[in-house]
Design brief:
Helix content is about 15%, strand content about 65%. It has a single domain, classed as Galactose-binding domain-like (Jelly Rolls). About 15% of the residues are buried. It is built from 1 helix and 7 strands; from the N terminus they run H-E-E-E-E-E-E-E.
Length: about 130
């Protein structure tokens, strides 16, 4: 009986570590903007941007990190990492790239036991 309880507990812990946890999460995701503030965020949020070959994306970001770490990633339609930045403190900047292939690009926000906020907005030009 103890073995079953122990195994059940381990399975529960493993499944919980794979989940996204958000406490006090308030977000807006509309058009070319995605922002959120939170007391605690651990996990992943994904936004998708459709681009044509030759289009240039300018991603502006404002990051506030009160604790933990926040990372931003851009993944191309083939699943390759184009850009990654990890933030341990507040930051404001932009990232610019030109799409080599058309399709859906992913903007991934990864929270690592973090608190704070982020604001993303982007412009696509040809």
């Amino acid at each position: 009986m103890k073995k079953i309880t122990l195994i059940s507990t381990l399975i529960l812990l493993v499944s919980l570590t794979a989940c996204t946890i958000k406490v006090g999460w308030v977000s807006i995701n509309f058009g070319n903007r995605f922002s959120a503030s939170y007391q605690h965020f651990n996990g992943k949020q994904v936004d998708r941007i459709r681009m044509k070959p030759g289009e240039t994306l300018t991603l502006n970001y404002e990051i506030e990190v009160d604790k933990g770490a926040l990372s931003l990633q851009i993944i191309n339609p083939q699943g390759d990492l184009i850009w990654k930045e990890k933030f341990l403190k507040n930051a404001e900047s932009q990232f610019v790239f030109t799409a080599e292939t058309g399709g859906v690009y992913k903007v991934i926000v990864l929270g690592e036991q973090t608190g704070g906020s982020f604001k993303l907005d982007w412009v696509i030009e040809y």
